[in-house]
């Protein structure tokens, strides 16, 4: 491989939204702490930039001050997930090494329960030999990744390994790949933040350090490129960091018009039964998975996503190998709208790729290679991002956190998901990466905030302490609702410290602090999502009051036409929908219920998109529908309408039973119940309509009638 412009190592930009020229000096000074630093230092295995100092840096094994430390508790055993591994062709020069797992992983982004794929890509040179490997899978998958590479002959021919996103869980796999491929001239390319993580872990891990010996490690800079042997065109790199993934890099193959997009344009699906590397089922097959991934992982960082999309500047096109794709007519409007938003966010700074990338396929880290749905997905990303950025302009919650092992970041992600579900924007700041000016600006404009921290040596890490001091001094932060959260391995003092200081200063908490020991469970993630929902609904209280007033005015205005009053005469059975997902459980009143099919027996249920229960009802989920009995419904309604804390038992004090097949609650005083499985979902305005197949059921009251919900007007429940 010939090397292009990777010869010099420069510190990478730490924030995806670059400062305008007139703010550049102040911005750089604030992010560096006002001190000069050398551009790079060297270790035995390559040039290494000095760590960038922002508000502080989380060190997983230490704090700034040496403190007495509680004895470490044994962490839970490492979990391995069964998976299949295969190599599939993307085109004649590119193959995907696909690790497909059908199990459900615990994080919030896997709530579709479709499993996942972890993709790595092998690129061939003009002689047909594998020369470049892009990415490695997570160690949690029980597969022999190195063995698969060896059986394909790649370990003897690879000269370059590119990492678009590095996490501690990928380092053991990377080390094994380096050992298997080690030979003179092997180079490892990754961004500066990833390089910092690599060196921190190598200093404490002999196996990783040994694997790096003799490997040429280089940092990817904006505008870097490389060329495969004999190729006239090369690979270009675009830095697209987000607060959770500050090391994110996209790779563009000029030869193939393929964008290796890392986490962007991903979907968590095992692609069960798919024999192709691409989205051969089209938009209908993968739309829900693409949307869920975006909502969970990218909607909370919409400002950074907007700038990243602007940097990528994708010009979707059809190629002979793409099998179609069509024009961009439907995507132009949201893309132009997004470009305008980016200009506002960056104050007109030129911070991206100058010319468009002509893209015939997108190869993400998770899910199918996108060809058939390319234009649609690019346009939808622009549309979703513009919507989130605009929502943040109306009301936004600042989600501020630091994370030593990724667990606090998972909590932040789940809280953010709850906030965005309620239609409130999120501005996420990773306190390891952001500067003081960014933090102050976010606090000045936020409508609420949450602060997350791990516990290290019995204390908050330095940058959380610094951020907490900034919060205490900020006038706007004192006026808005807030809360705190964090993960720990022993006693969790950091959460207690944050809570005490904020409450002593008179800050108003919107929900109880969230504490998580080691990795979050489904119940913990439910607590986080519902807590975020509560905070967002607290912020929207005034808006909701205005909506109710508007609805009352609407009802008066429409009395003459009778439309709203007539709609209110549509009645439905009064039901309680119950569901269970691992150790998480939910329930809600439902009256927008109707039988939808005879064969197979099926029904529809409409669920408002900002209901906590909605996340527990993806395609494939099971639930029970308890049809309440006339004359016995009031006590159940009273119970269901009580205010509940996040993940609180909705049936405390009630006599209930559980279904053996679904695990969900059965209310014995109901007229009947049915056990159902969600077959499909359809967005319908502010609701989601579920079509579910009825698998079983029982009449519990042979003489009783179903309770019916009557409404005065069709503009509310």
User: Low-confidence spans: pLDDT under 50, at least 5 residues?
Assistant: 2-54, 57-72, 319-329
Beta-strand residue percentage: 15-25%
CATH fold descriptor of the largest domain: Metallo-beta-lactamase, Chain A
CATH superfamily placement of the largest domain: Ribonuclease Z/Hydroxyacylglutathione hydrolase-like
Mean model confidence by pLDDT? 81
The helix count comes to 17
Number of domains: 3
Please count the beta strands (DSSP E, at least 2 residues each): 35
By CATH, the architecture of the largest domain is named 4-Layer Sandwich
Radius of gyration: 26 Å
Major sheet size, sense and barrel closure: 7 strands, mixed
Distance N terminus to C terminus?
65 Å
Please identify the structural class as seen in this structure: alpha/beta
Strand order of the largest sheet: 5-6-7-8-10-11-12
Principal-axes shape call: globular
Helix content: 25-40%
What is the CATH class of the largest domain? Alpha Beta
Which features would summarize this protein structure in a list?
single chain; 717 residues; Metallo-beta-lactamase, Chain A; Rossmann fold; 3 domains; seven-stranded mixed sheet; disordered N terminus
């Amino acid at each position: 491989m010939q090397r292009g412009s990777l010869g010099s190592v420069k510190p990478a930009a730490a924030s995806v939204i670059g400062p305008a020229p007139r703010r550049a000096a102040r911005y750089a000074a604030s992010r560096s702490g006002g001190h000069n630093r050398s551009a790079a230092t060297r270790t035995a295995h390559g040039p290494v930039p000095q760590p960038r100092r922002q508000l502080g840096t989380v060190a997983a094994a230490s704090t700034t001050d040496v403190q007495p430390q509680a004895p470490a508790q044994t962490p839970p055993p490492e979990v391995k997930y069964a998976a299949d591994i295969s190599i599939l062709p993307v085109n004649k020069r590119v193959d995907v090494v696909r690790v497909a797992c059908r199990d459900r992983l615990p994080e919030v982004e896997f709530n579709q329960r479709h499993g996942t794929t972890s993709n790595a890509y092998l690129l061939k040179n003009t002689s047909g030999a594998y020369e470049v490997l892009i990415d490695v899978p997570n160690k949690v998958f029980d597969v022999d990744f190195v063995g698969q590479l060896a059986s394909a002959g790649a370990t003897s021919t690879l000269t370059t390994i590119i990492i678009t996103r590095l996490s501690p869980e990928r380092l053991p796999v990377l080390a094994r790949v380096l050992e298997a491929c080690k030979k003179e001239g092997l180079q490892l390319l990754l961004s500066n933040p990833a390089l910092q993580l690599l060196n921190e872990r190598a200093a404490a891990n002999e196996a990783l350090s040994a694997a790096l010996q003799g490997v040429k490690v280089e940092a990817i800079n904006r505008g870097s490129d490389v060329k495969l042997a004999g190729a006239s065109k090369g690979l270009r790199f675009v830095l697209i960091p987000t607060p959770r993934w500050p090391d994110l890099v996209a790779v563009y193959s000029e030869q193939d018009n393929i964008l290796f997009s890392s986490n962007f344009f991903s979907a968590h699906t095992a692609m069960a039964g798919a024999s192709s590397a691409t989205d051969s089922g089209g938009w209908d097959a993968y739309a829900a998975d693409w949307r869920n991934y975006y909502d969970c992982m990218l909607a909370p960082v919409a400002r950074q996503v907007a700038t990243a999309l602007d940097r990528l500047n994708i010009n979707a096109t059809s190629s002979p190998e793409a099998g179609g794709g069509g024009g961009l007519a439907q995507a132009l409007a949201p893309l132009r709208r997004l470009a305008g938003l980016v200009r506002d966010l960056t104050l007109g700074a030129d911070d991206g790729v100058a010319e468009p990338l002509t893209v015939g396929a997108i190869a993400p880290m998770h899910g199918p290679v996108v060809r058939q749905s390319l234009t649609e997905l690019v346009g939808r990303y622009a549309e979703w991002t513009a919507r989130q950025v605009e929502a943040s302009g109306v009301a936004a919650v600042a989600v501020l956190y630091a994370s030593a092992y990724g667990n606090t970041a998972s909590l932040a992600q789940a809280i953010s998901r709850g906030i965005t579900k309620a239609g409130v924007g999120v501005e996420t700041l990773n306190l390891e990466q952001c500067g003081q000016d960014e933090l102050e600006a976010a606090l000045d404009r936020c409508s609420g905030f949450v602060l997350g921290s791990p516990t290290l040596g019995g204390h908050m890490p330095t940058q959380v302490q610094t951020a907490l001091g900034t919060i205490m001094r900020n006038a706007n932060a004192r006026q808005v609702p807030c809360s705190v959260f964090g993960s720990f391995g022993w006693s969790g003092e950091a959460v207690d410290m944050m809570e005490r200081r904020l409450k002593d200063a008179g800050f108003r908490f919107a929900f109880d602090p969230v504490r998580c020991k080691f990795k979050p469970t489904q119940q913990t993630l439910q607590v986080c999502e519902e807590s975020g929902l509560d905070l967002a609904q607290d912020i929207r209280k005034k808006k909701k009051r205005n909506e109710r007033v508007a609805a009352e005015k609407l009802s008066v205005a429409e009395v003459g036409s009778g439309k709203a009053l007539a709609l209110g005469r549509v009645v439905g059975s009064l039901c309680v929908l119950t569901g269970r997902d691992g150790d998480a459980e939910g329930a809600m009143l439902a009256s927008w219920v109707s039988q939808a099919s005879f064969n197979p027996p099926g029904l529809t249920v409409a669920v408002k998109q900002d209901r906590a229960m909605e996340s527990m009802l993806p395609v494939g989920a099971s639930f029970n529908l308890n049809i309440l009995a006339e004359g016995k419904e009031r006590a159940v309604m009273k119970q269901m309408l009580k205010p509940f804390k996040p993940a609180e038992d909705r049936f405390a004090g009630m006599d209930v039973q559980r279904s053996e097949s679904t695990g969900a609650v059965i209310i014995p005083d109901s007229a009947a119940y049915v056990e159902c499985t969600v077959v499909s979902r359809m967005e319908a305005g502010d609701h989601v309509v579920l079509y579910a197949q009825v698998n079983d059921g029982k009449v519990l009251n042979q003489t009783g009638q179903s309770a019916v919900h009557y409404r005065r007007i069709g503009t509310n429940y």
